[in-house]
Amino acid sequence: MIPLVSLVDALLHFLDPSVLARVLFDGLAKASLYVMIAAGLTLIFGLMGVLNFAHGSLTAIGAYLGGLVMVTFAASATGNVGRIALFFVAIVVVFALLTAFGGAMEVTLIRPLYDRPPLYQILLTFGVTLVLEELLRMVLLFYDIQPSTDWLAAQGTRPDIISKTHDVFGLGVEGLEVFQILLGIVITAGVWLFLTRTRYGLYIRAGSEDGEMAQALGVNVHQAFTVVFGVGVGITGVAGALLMWDSAWAASIDLGAEVLLPAFVVVIVGGLGTFRGTVVAGLLVGLVDAFTTELFTSDIVGFSALPELFIFLILVGTLVLRPQGLFGVEEVGGH
Amino acid sequence: MFLPRVQTMITVFYFGLFAMSFDFISGYTGYLSFGHSAFYGLGAYFVILVANGKVPLLGNGTPFMVLLLLAGLLAVVMALLMGAVAFRLTGVYFAMITLGFAQILYVFFSNWDYVGANPRDGIAVLGRQDGFAIGVPYVDSLNMTIGQLQGDTFTWGMDFAAMTGIGALSPISHTIALGPGEVSYYMVGLVVLVCYFAMQRIIHSPFGRAMIAIRENEERARAVGYDTFRVKMGAFAISGFFGAVAGGLFTGYRTSVAPENSFYFLTAGDALLASIIGGFGTVAGPLFGRLFHEGLHEFLTKEGGGLLPYLRSQLGEGTLNTVIIDGFTVAEAIEVFLNGRAGLYIGLLFVLFVLYVPNGLLGTLRAYLGGTVAGQVAQAVKGRVRGWKL
């Protein structure tokens, strides 16, 4: 237990404006990562009720695909602008490939299971994750890339402006974190627009409110499921491509398991079928992560796994107090 | 040549018991306990922590059988606490909250330096020399020590000729020497067998019927008058008990444990694999599922005397060095696609089972025979033997 004196110390530590600003900024950067890794999962879970266990390995595949594009063309795209442009090309490539893959996966594997208990979808996607992970491992070994350690070549393609720490108002701000926050905002806005401004967004909102009613009104739910699964997997891959640059995550096989559980936590805490809930939960988890990391790095608490522990405590706490999640059930469909 | 080794079979036993306990709650009540590894880890850590003298009130010489029982009871308490929260939820949410609990324990035990110097890498038995014995506690002659190194040996039968010096007795002098592996095999197997019968008994009791009723239609079971919450709690507690016993057997035999192979959620994932392949909703099925998994794993590694040495000896140098594509030889292809790749094939098989064989090996066999295997075999024998009366 933390003695009272150190509790006061901790309070004083966080009252320091520069510390507070840094923690908030770190928290925002982490939050945008959490929102992004959960966005694909929440789309799929929201409409179809399928908890996609293969989410983690799809993120890892996205990371490696993005890294592949970056490493292959890094020599021809030098300079800050070139590299960032190339990164957006990589994102588009990853999104296209994984959306196609997700759509195919839905048609061939998930579709036969809709009339079975929902349990079987968890089981199936769990099996898919085992297969994908082993296939990825085989491909990596074939190309002599060490699968269990971070892929440093991909990290090396970061442009200078992102690798450096910039001095803004006397605060050290990492370029990567700024980039993550910006991209997080862009992707969140993109998903938001997809949900509220497109036909399939309408179908998703209608379907997660009352699937049978939507079908009766002429929505081709099967097709909508395929599109949503594809898009969800595509966004998952994009999140992976962004994580590839971050040395705290980086492209490796283990990325799958690292990503999977926080993504579950964010989706469940946010509530079924609400993207707004996911964004809020992502912010919550990100800020708590940054705050508890600071508690450890400033030697106030000597337990290194504090952030991890707190993430799962948030999950359990939410499910105990509000099983439907922060924005669940009552507001299903009200994005 | 293709039979699994004794060591592999011991693994099949204790992990099979864990998979059975997982199936007991998940397959029979329909509540997927994805954090079931919490119980396995609890049992595993409890045994080692007591043996290292880290648990208050219990000396490090406490008999192993007592430890198994205590670990089970501890798991019952934990299951009741977890269940009180988790059974307010259903379906995916239940799976997630149990997973959350297990991960909290995982994070906790991989960072808590009280358990050992380097908690992330796991802990080993340090403060106990005599090993763990299965048998009747406090009666030395009725105990057999298990373990890879410190296990007991046992000689079955008597060599009368050597004892008496009379050569004429040699025809009735037969002995079978059991090494530590074989002794561990029988003793671990004995505990697993007893646990299996206990679970089987519970499933066939009225309580077990109520569990199945919950799986089939919980609302109706409640409407008929079952206190479903209590049945679910009871089932979870029982399954937690056997899960912890399995964990205890695991460390009793291995004398070391790491968070990765006990509390981590993929441990429960392996139990899930075993259950689905063996037969979801059958007590014995998960054991066969695990046997299948371990068997395939051994078949596809270099050590096991399985496929790879066979291929290497049969194909010959010429074939092995044949280039398939772009400097990629057959030998390399075997290395990449077969060696240690059991996970891939198990995963593929798992997907196929989920899609096309949802009842698993044992469930399908039962459907084909039209009843339980034992019942149908008895029926067939009865039909063949004339004048059989029971």
Automatic annotation (TrEMBL), chain A:
GO terms for cellular component: plasma membrane. GO terms for biological process: amino acid transport. The chain crosses the membrane at residues 31-51, 58-78, 84-110, 122-143, 178-195, 224-245, 265-288, 300-321. The keyword Metal-binding does not apply. It comes from the Archaea. Pfam families: BPD_transp_2. InterPro entries: ABC_transp_permease (IPR001851), BCAA_transport_permease (IPR052157). It is a multi-pass membrane protein. It is found in: Cell membrane. Keywords: Amino-acid transport, Cell membrane, Membrane, Transmembrane, Transmembrane helix, Transport. Belongs to the binding-protein-dependent transport system permease family. LivHM subfamily. This is Branched-chain amino acid ABC transporter permease. It comes from Haloarchaeobius litoreus. The lineage of its organism: Archaea, Methanobacteriati, Methanobacteriota, Stenosarchaea group, Halobacteria.
UniProtKB/TrEMBL annotation, chain B:
It is found in: Cell membrane. It holds the Pfam family BPD_transp_2. Keywords: Cell membrane, Membrane, Transmembrane, Transmembrane helix. The chain crosses the membrane at residues 12-31, 38-58, 64-85, 92-109, 183-199, 229-251, 271-292, 342-362. This is Branched-chain amino acid ABC transporter permease. It is a multi-pass membrane protein. The lineage of its organism: Archaea, Methanobacteriati, Methanobacteriota, Stenosarchaea group, Halobacteria. It comes from the Archaea. InterPro entries: ABC_transp_permease, LivM-like.
